[in-house]
Amino acid sequence: MRLGVNLPYDEAVKFDDGLLVTTINTLAAAGIRGCLTNFVNDEKQWEAISKKLIKRLDEGGMALLEYNAPFFIPTTSRDTVKKEAEKFVRLLAISENIGCLSVGTCAMGPNSIYPHPANRTPGAYDILKQTCELIARDAQRLGLRARLEIEVVYTTLLGTPREVADFVDEIASPNIQGHMDIVNCLTLDNVFDHADYIKEAFRVMKGRFYSAHIKDVRPVRSYLPGIEIAPLGEGCLDLKTYLQCLAELPATFPAVIEHIDTVQESIEAYRRVKNLCMELGMETWGDG
Fold it and tell me: Could you report the average pLDDT of every consecutive run of 10 residues in the chain (288 residues)?
């Protein structure tokens, strides 16, 4: 496993070269060798910022493990399918050009990735399928190896590991794959006890995902049902079981701690996971 963190400060760090260099150097000095980040929102800046980003990461001795899209895949209108597919293909090409083959995203409904009754309709599924088929066709035509990796998110069209696996199988393209983020598909019903659910998720999605996220989760303090992201180590995630399942994957498999806001929080979260990995006898930067 290749353990990394999300690059803190998101958009700001990419437009402030001094902050970018300082952030990378501080993380690298703490032993962190890989990261994920998002493309900037401004489409005109995608190539330039990506080239600067990878240059600074190379200089700092860090790898870009995952380069996420700045938007999700819309499922509400057939009119924009071709345009959206073209943008995703462009992201794949840019990411591959700087050496990163994993581009993450989610399926999006009328309320983004939040609950909405139209999220799981047959029409939404058909639009998602059509978009991904166009992405796969054009990516293969261009000879791209980069993958658009669709996260499992409980509130969206692809809300369970089985739904993601079945969708990947239906598209049947190496350029459209799934992404493992177990916290995204937990509910109040299993947030306290999900070891078996984790194991089943890895079994169901085997061979259909190439990166994973690590974060924690806890119930909201309310008599109404709900869960929320928690600081790593302060929630209910069965991190030991999750890491043990990740340990069964290839040594170069990227697993990235996300939803961290500052460099110091990144270092603390990384050390927490690394220490548990050491207890479990796991490598945190496998070279294959």
Answer: 94 93 97 97 97 98 98 96 98 98 97 93 97 98 98 96 98 98 96 98 98 97 94 96 97 96 96 96 82
Which of 217, 164, 165, 223 is closest to 193 using CA atoms?
Answer: 217
Can you list the alpha helix ranges (DSSP code H) found in the chain? 10-15, 17-29, 46-60, 81-97, 122-141, 161-171, 195-204, 239-246, 263-279
CATH class label, 2-279: alpha beta
- 107-108 vs 176-180, strand pairing mode: unpaired
Rounded to the nearest 5 degrees, what angle is found at the Cα of 214, between the Cα atoms of 33 and 222?
A: 145
Tell me the pTM: 0.96
Backbone phi and psi for residue 217, each to the nearest 5 degrees, phi listed first: -150, 150
User: What angle do the packed helices 46-60 and 17-29 form, to 10 degrees?
Assistant: 40
Task: Please count the other Cβ atoms lying within 10 Å of the Cβ belonging to residue 42.
Answer: 12
Q: Where in the chain are the domains?
A: 2-279
Q: 31: closest CA among 281, 275, 280, 288?
A: 275
Helix (H) or strand (E) holding 77: none
The first and second tokens of residue 138, run together, are: 């054009």
